[in-house]
Structures are given as structure tokens and as C-alpha cells.
Amino acid sequence: MIALVTGGNRGIGREVCRGLAERGHTVLLTARSLEAATAAAEEIGGDVVPVRLDVTSERDVVDAAALVTERHGHLDVLVNNAAITYDTWQGAASADLEVVRAAAETNLYGPWRLVQELLPLLRESAHPRIVNVSSEAASLTNMGGGTPAYGTTKVALNALTRMLAAELRNDGVLVNAICPGWVATDMGGPGGRPVAEGAAGILWAATLPDDGPTGGFFRDGRPLPW
Ligand SMILES: NC(=O)c1ccc[n+]([C@@H]2O[C@H](COP(=O)([O-])OP(=O)(O)OC[C@H]3O[C@@H](n4cnc5c(N)ncnc54)[C@H](OP(=O)(O)O)[C@@H]3O)[C@@H](O)[C@H]2O)c1
Fold it and tell me: Counting atoms of ligand 1 from 1, which one is nearest the CA of 106?
């Protein structure tokens, strides 16, 4: 199985790469710095290939798709993990819209572009899976104020998840949004749970059986309210 993970150099993304490698996948560990991708791939070991990929760069995404085409001819798993701007310092009423726009480039348009470019390769897979790493902060059911760039871009990512799942259902592509919970990473800060626990629900979605769910929002394999 061939998997591509964005933001694989640290945090939850690196742990997802480790978990997929342990399950016998060939993992394209992508990061916006090739140096960082290489260091993480070496630390994990196994069949983990470092690839430079900034999700906001159309050129990088096209190049990554070309590399997968050339080396493997198909892709089984895409994990859209990279994200930025947990903006606890601002509220929607006075948010800096340039900050929101920049967050959308990484958190929404990045995953969207990757799906579009990699879809022909996913369609060549017998068991294609797309995992969009989201957050409970995107749940409209309990939404209050705060973290406007992060929240709105993850809500949009959830909407994209629903649309893709519906459009790709007949092709057998399972598409789900996964919240890892509060995890102790650079983004999550101290006090969250260990990265392995956050990664587990993502690995679950990346390795679902063919009759598994699609178009869902989950944490730890259990549904979350949209
Ligand atoms: N930690 C939590 O408590 C928590 C809770 C809910 C959801 N999540 C979600 O879980 C995912 C992983 O979060 P994390 O806690 O592991 O975050 P993190 O420690 O801040 O790591 C973020 C990763 O994204 C990468 N990245 C940022 N911009 C990128 C770009 N333009 N192109 C490619 N990679 C880029 C970073 O690369 P660089 O090293 O180059 O910056 C880094 O590898 C995110 O989607 C996040 O929203 C996290």
C-alpha cells in the first residue's frame, strides 16, 4: 500500500507516518522542508520516503503527483494533515482577514488541490482512502466564538469531506474527517494526550475496510456531531 501524508515531519503527521510504516505501507512522508522530511523519515525507518511538499504550492503538488505516478502508478491513502493558525488570540468580530486567508490556503485549498491532483492515482487503487484531519473546533453543533481562522477553515474542510465522499462513493473512495482530540504537539501545546493516541483515529480511517464509513466526522473511531 502506498500512502502520502502532508506535514509528516513533526507532531501528529509524523506519528501517522510511523503507524502506516508499521502496518507495512510505503509512506511518502512529505514536508515543506526536504531536510525536515528526511530527518523524520530516518528517525522512523522502514519504507518511508521523504518528499518536499508545501501544500500551498501548486508546483509542489503537481510535482508530488508526478513522482507518485512515476514510482508507483497509484496511491492508496492520502492523509491531509498539515494545518496552521490555531488563532486563540483573535475573535471573528475583529479577525485579521489576511490571517484567515492564509490559513485557508493551507487548511482548505491545500487539501483540495491535493485531492484534485492525486485523484487519478487514487482511482488506480483497489482500496482508496482520503483522511482529512479536522478538529472538534469545526463542529457547528457546539460552536461558540474564538479561533475564527482555524474554525472556519476546518468547517470548510468538513464540507469538502462531505462533498468528496458523495461524489466519489461510486468509485469506492472512502473520505472522512477525523478529529485527533487534544494532542500535545507544537500546535496543541502541553497537557494534551500523547501523539500516538491522536494518530490512532487517523490510522483507523486510513485503513478502513471496503465496507467502512464514508462522509463521516469521527474521533477515536466514534462519530462526532457536525
Ligand atoms: N494538536 C491538537 O491538539 C490538534 C487538535 C485538533 C486537530 N489537530 C489537527 O491535527 C493536524 C496536525 O496537527 P499538529 O498538532 O501535529 O500540528 P503541528 O505540530 O503544528 O504540525 C503541523 C504540521 O503541518 C505542517 N505544515 C504547516 N503548513 C504547511 C504547508 N504549507 N505545507 C506543508 N506542511 C505544512 C508543519 O510543517 P513545518 O514543520 O514546516 O511547519 C507541521 O509538519 C492538523 O490538521 C491540526 O489542525 C490538532
Answer: 31
Task: Give the model's pLDDT for residue 142.
Answer: 84
Using CA atoms, how far residue 87 sits from 96, 102, 135, 177, in Å, is 10, 12, 13, 21
Our count of domains for the chain comes to 1
Burial class of residue 88 (count of CB atoms within 10 Å of its CB; 0-12, 13-18, 19+): exposed
The span from the CA of 54 to the CA of 30, in Å, is 8
- For the residues 145-172, what does the mean pLDDT come to? 98
Which of the residues 86, 112, 150, 218 is marked catalytic?
150
Examine the pLDDT at 158 and tell me if it is beyond 90.
Answer: yes
Q: Please indicate whether residue 56, judged by its CB atom, sits closer than 6 Å to ligand 1.
A: yes
Pocket mutation for ligand 1, best pick of 4, 17, 32, 56 (most atoms within 8 Å of C-beta): 32
Q: What is the CATH number of the domain that holds 52?
A: 3.40.50.720
Contacts of 88 (CB under 8 A, 6+ apart): 146, 147
What is the average pLDDT across 2-31? Answer: 98
For residue 21, give its domain range. Answer: 2-88+108-223
Give yes or no: 86 in active site.
no
